[in-house]
Design brief:
alpha/beta; single chain; 14% strand; binds ligand G3I
């Protein structure tokens, strides 16, 4: 047998795959269907999109936007020092550009997951580091990244900080002024970029969601009053069916941001399936029902701009690496060894009921 160069490349790409090749079920072009409903649809992805040809094809067939999941985060760019390594991010941005995907960078500034060297600096140095990071990163990708989560998850009241703000080096160094400062720097660094403030837990009516929602709205209102350059807000949408929720109420809440002149993004949609039974068929059905329950009111929110899923497929579920998630399955009486079925395509990239639920929500809203 003669191996061609192309054959060799295909064989080495296949060797990287941890899963069997996808069975070639045709995927509906959700990006196109969502466009007819007036919204941008896409998915988070990271380096795996460059090495897994099947996954890459699924992304390109279905998405109009792509969120770079991790490689643009401060701790991924600069784990050991301020100079950092942008090579992975560069490759992902080049990929997005090559294929006409509108890219979102997430996240420039987040009080979680900061590297130890940053935490050891003085307040003055941390403030300077923030400016430097925003300016260098945004200038590097100016015109090539459509939107940025400039600040991610500003609130976490359970931590007990004044005003309910999330603790971490940026807050400790600058107080809450770090947020306004970050947006002003970002607008100066790339005046054409869309600047988003991304928040978690607002879709749930437990203690966390109830505490964050009013604080987040009041804070954003204040930013707008002060003329801070902010174009939109992101609600993550990591849905947790076992917690109290009222998605009609959530949609009415999100509409209040539209009234402030902001675009609304659902930025990280998926369903935590830890409270569901082990049986995969039942789980898939329940995950899909949760998507329908959420998406139906959400599609009525004025200025709804984008729906981004936090991975298209279970093949790359971020829940696989989250210890708290396995603990939750155990507590719910499930088998912690079971694979998460938290996303829209299965491990083999075949559409699941949640995919069809998303599609139906877009079709109905057209
Ligand atoms: O790649 C290593 C793997 O080799 C190792 O075996 C494994 C063991 O822990 O870790 C793997 O790296 C993990 C990486 O995700 C890839 O799965 C990191 O430890 C882990 O810190 C990292 O977590 C990311 C997390 O943000 C923290 O940055 C998740 O991928 C990412 O999906 C998640 O995304 C966040 C959003 O940015 C903000 N909203 C919440 C969302 C979910 O937590």
């Amino acid at each position: 047998m003669t191996l061609t160069r192309r054959g060799l490349l295909a064989a080495s790409a296949a060797a990287l795959l941890p899963f069997p090749a996808a069975t070639a079920t045709a995927l509906s072009n959700l990006g196109q269907i969502a466009k007819s409903a007036g919204v941008l649809f896409g998915s988070a992805f990271d380096r795996e999109v460059l090495s897994d040809a099947h996954y890459q094809r699924a992304i390109l067939q279905t998405c109009r936007i792509g969120a770079i999941e991790n490689s643009l985060k401060f701790d991924w760019l600069k784990p050991r020092g301020r100079d950092g390594d942008y090579s992975h991010a560069d490759a992902l941005v080049a990929f997005g550009q090559r294929h006409g995907l509108a890219l979102k960078g997430t996240a420039l500034i987040w009080n979680d997951w900061t590297p130890p060297w940053l935490n050891a600096l003085s307040s003055r140095e941390i403030a300077a580091e923030m400016d430097r990071h925003i300016e260098a990163t945004m200038a590097r990708y100016a015109g090539r990244i459509w939107a940025w989560d400039v600040v991610n998850e500003p609130f976490l009241p359970i931590q007990g900080r004044e005003g309910g703000f999330r603790k971490g080096p940026w807050l400790d160094a600058m107080g809450t002024a770090y947020i306004e400062r970050a947006y002003r720097r970002a607008a100066a660094a790339d005046p054409k970029a869309t600047l988003i403030l991304n928040e978690a837990f607002c879709e749930q009516n437990d203690d966390w969601g109830n505490a964050i929602r009013p604080r987040f709205l009041a804070f954003v209102r204040r930013l707008k009053d002060q003329g801070v350059p902010l174009n939109g807000v992101g609600f993550q949408g990591h849905l947790k069916p076992s917690l109290p929720h009222d998605y009609q109420q959530f949609a009415a809440y999100a509409a209040q941001f539209a009234e402030l002149g902001l675009d609304v993004h659902i930025s990280e949609l998926d369903v935590d399936d830890s409270s569901f039974p082990d049986d995969p068929v039942q789980r898939d059905r329940l995950v899909a029902a949760q998507i329908t329950k959420f998406m139906t009111p959400v599609m009525t929110v004025p200025r709804l701009k984008s729906i981004c899923v936090w991975h298209l497929s279970d093949r790359f579920s971020w829940y696989r690496n989250a210890d708290w998630f396995l603990e939750q399955i155990r507590k719910a009486g499930g088998d912690p060894a079971r694979a998460p079925r938290t996303h829209f395509l299965d491990d083999n990239l075949n559409p699941k009921p949640a995919w069809r639920a998303l599609e139906a929500a877009f079709v109905t809203a057209r």
